[in-house]
Design goal:
Layout (H helix, E strand, L loop, with lengths): L3 E10 L3 E4 H5 L6 H8 L3 E4 L6 H16 L8 E5 L10 H9 L5 E5 L5 H14 L6 E8 L9 H4 L4 E11 L5 E9 L7 E2 L11 H5 L6 E2 L1 H22 L9 E4 L4 H10 L7 E2 L2 H4 L6 H11 L8 E8 L3 E8 L1
Parallel strand pairs: 4-5, 4-6, 11-12, 11-13
Antiparallel strand pairs: 1-7, 2-3, 6-7, 8-14, 9-10, 13-14
Helix pairs in contact: 3-4, 8-9
The structure holds oxa(dethia)-CoA.
Oxa(dethia)-CoA binds next to helix 2, helix 6, helix 8 and strand 13.
Length: about 325
Amino acid sequence: MAVRSRVLGTGMCVPDLIMTNDDLTRIVDTSDEWIVSRTGMKERHRVRPDQAASDLAIPASRQALEEAGLGAGDLDAIIVATITPDTIFPSTSCILQDKLGARHITAFDVSAGCTGAIYALALADMMIRAGDARHVLIVGVEVLTKITNWTDRSTCVLFGDAAGAMVVGPCDDGRHGMLSYYLASDGAAGNTLFMPAGGSRLPASHETVDQRLHCLYMKGNELFRPAVKMMSDSCILLAERAGLTLADIDMYVFHQANLRIIEAVGKRLEIPREKVFVNIHKYANTSTATTILAVHEARREGLIGSGSIVSQVAFGAGLTWGGVLWRW
Ligand code: UT7
């Protein structure tokens, strides 16, 4: 029987500090009514100044390892998906390898915007099916509040900080595990969501800092339609590749960037509302962490259980999009 990857444990971590929509009205010209009606967001979590990505990644990873019944020493690879690493280099995955006490294993970061965790899960599946790894830790972690322009109301209300972790391992019962994956990109639209400075194109300087060019920049209304189309197309492709129909899927977990986008995908694909998981009201957009957080919470709420078919789909900077389809 062919080996597939299967999720053995999930975990999540959000910082203690909560920012409500009302808190944001004291920073920029906005309102609870605008944020809720345009995005579905009510609150988001924010790190303290001394906290970085790995500080959220570690507890989330430990929780996922515990559920998997594994120790850090059992891991063969660590893949961290993030656009807000502790440092540009070394990678946050190497920091995690050390802090978790893992062996001298494969460890690298993936930069694929909000689709990063999907890319990481597909890569882990390839490694496991190739026989190169048995147990892989995947972390989607973001501390977006550290790259937020707090004077720009069109972006600063949208993001939060979080880490989600999944431990995957081999499954050869021919039934459970990853049924299909799909990854895609379109760099031509990269300037709709990016961080202008801090890389080799525009290294840090007094000017770049003064102009807040190390902050996230987004043309949100240019991303809305592509987000709906690409996530819808991804769901269709994932099901086709697994020989299933959309109606066979028990739970849809979409990237939580905007409740209106999630609802538009559901409407376009004629998915019953109860099959679409939503937690954007609690965490806002945590980029690559959103779908792992959602899978973790859907499991805790009993909405995903053994045998459930789950479509986990994202869209983000790059542009990138895609998904993974599981039989839990
Ligand atoms: O996660 C990665 C991928 N990202 C996405 O998929 C995001 C996709 N885009 C979106 O979710 C939405 O476009 C946003 C939530 C970002 C914005 O919603 P929108 O309905 O597209 O609003 P808009 O940008 O077209 O702005 C509408 C109005 C503007 O005012 P005028 O020009 O109509 O007078 C904005 O100035 O809303 C104003 N506005 C705000 N008003 C109050 C923008 N931000 C705010 C705000 N509070 N925070």
